[in-house]
């Protein structure tokens, strides 16, 4: 087994890339209605890829595994990973499009509604994970979500557990899950909606989040982190329950990607050896900066920017 010191700073993320097509307007159109928008932007996105960008900018050495098409959106994906110093394990499929996402952003509140078509990444299987087992074995933290098929996510958690790698499961979008997946999760990071879908517990406050977290602990999760938007994030385990406040870093421009920023930042901090509560604060600060900027991946801040919010000394990223 690889020594823990050799794994420091290394994060492997399994997930999807999509190109975000973002439209801004003062409200959503009704079915059958056309309205005028105020702005349009196209850029890199997808939960897994966003988390990879967040973790890389936060100083981690990141390997990202996905599938893309041999098309213009796939070219954007490869350029993004190259620019961010991310090692991409991306299978390129001919005749299958790279994923795309329609994002509506409310001009007034910055809140969003999203439709995701996974494209090539929606064909991922457990074999994609088996192909990167050496990368996972060399990492300190493994992260996955549910935008790619569940069998691939499950296999990733199994392989990481086999090699003693910390597992972070972001169950988004929420899907019905067999209970045997939960013991594979050192950390699970649902938002309020996802936590409710997984547990049946409606969440309106931190106490509700604790009740939902107790359900997940009973299913075998090591530690539950429920992200609560402006309410911060709750860490709940068998030994502690701590609410970490949100960081308000300016006017909210766009909330899309904030959860990805939290998860990517949390993983990067864990990978460099920070304790869970400190890693949560780092993730909350990163997300607090990201919502003040447009875009998902483009909104992710640098390590120095997050440390300035936290009041810590600045330092250099671990990757070149």
UniProtKB/TrEMBL annotation:
Keywords: ATP-binding, Carbohydrate metabolism, Cytoplasm, Kinase, Magnesium, Metal-binding, Nucleotide-binding, Potassium, Transferase
Job of this protein: Catalyzes the phosphorylation of ribose at O-5 in a reaction requiring ATP and magnesium. The resulting D-ribose-5-phosphate can then be used either for sythesis of nucleotides, histidine, and tryptophan, or as a component of the pentose phosphate pathway.
Keyword Chloroplast listed: no
Pathway: Carbohydrate metabolism; D-ribose degradation; D-ribose 5-phosphate from beta-D-ribopyranose: step 2/2
Self-association state and partner proteins as the record states: Homodimer.
Residues given in the record as ATP binding sites: 191, 227-232, 259-260
Protein name, UniProt field: Ribokinase
Record comment: activity regulation: Activated by a monovalent cation that binds near, but not in, the active site. The most likely occupant of the site in vivo is potassium. Ion binding induces a conformational change that may alter substrate affinity.
Entry's Gene Ontology molecular function annotations: ribokinase activity
Enzyme Commission identifier(s): 2.7.1.15
Organism of provenance: Paraburkholderia gardini
Record-stated family: Belongs to the carbohydrate kinase PfkB family. Ribokinase subfamily.
Enzyme class: transferase
């Amino acid at each position: 087994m690889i020594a823990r010191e050799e794994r420091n700073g290394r994060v492997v993320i399994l997930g999807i890339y999509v190109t975000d097509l973002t439209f801004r307007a003062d409200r959503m159109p009704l079915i059958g209605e056309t309205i005028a928008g105020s702005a349009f932007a196209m850029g890199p996105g997808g939960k897994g890829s966003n988390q990879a960008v967040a973790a890389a900018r936060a100083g981690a050495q990141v390997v990202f595994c996905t599938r893309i098409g041999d098309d213009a959106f796939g070219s954007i994906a490869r350029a993004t990973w190259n620019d961010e110093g991310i090692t991409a394990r991306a299978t390129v499929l001919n005749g299958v499009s790279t994923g795309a996402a329609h994002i509506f952003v409310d001009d007034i509140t910055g809140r969003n509604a999203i439709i995701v078509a996974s494209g090539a990444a929606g064909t991922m299987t457990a074999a994609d994970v088996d192909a990167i087992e050496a990368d996972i074995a060399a990492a300190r933290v493994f992260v996955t979500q549910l935008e790619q098929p569940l069998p691939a996510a499950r296999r990733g958690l199994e392989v990481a557990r086999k090699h003693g790698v910390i597992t972070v499961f972001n169950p988004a979008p929420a899907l019905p899950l067999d209970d045997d997946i939960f013991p594979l999760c050192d950390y699970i990071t649902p938002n309020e909606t996802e936590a409710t879908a997984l547990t049946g517990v409606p969440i309106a406050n931190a106490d509700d989040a604790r009740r939902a977290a107790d359900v997940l602990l009973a299913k075998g999760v090591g530690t539950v982190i429920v992200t609560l938007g402006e309410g911060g994030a709750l860490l709940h385990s068998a030994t502690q329950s701590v609410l970490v406040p949100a960081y308000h870093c300016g006017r909210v421009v766009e909330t899309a990607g904030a959860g990805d920023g939290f998860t990517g930042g949390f993983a990067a901090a864990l990978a460099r050896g920070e304790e869970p509560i400190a890693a949560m604060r780092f993730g909350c600060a990163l997300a607090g900066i990201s919502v003040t900027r447009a875009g998902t991946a483009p909104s992710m801040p640098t390590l120095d920017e997050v440390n300035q919010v936290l009041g810590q000394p600045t330092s250099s990223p671990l990757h070149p």
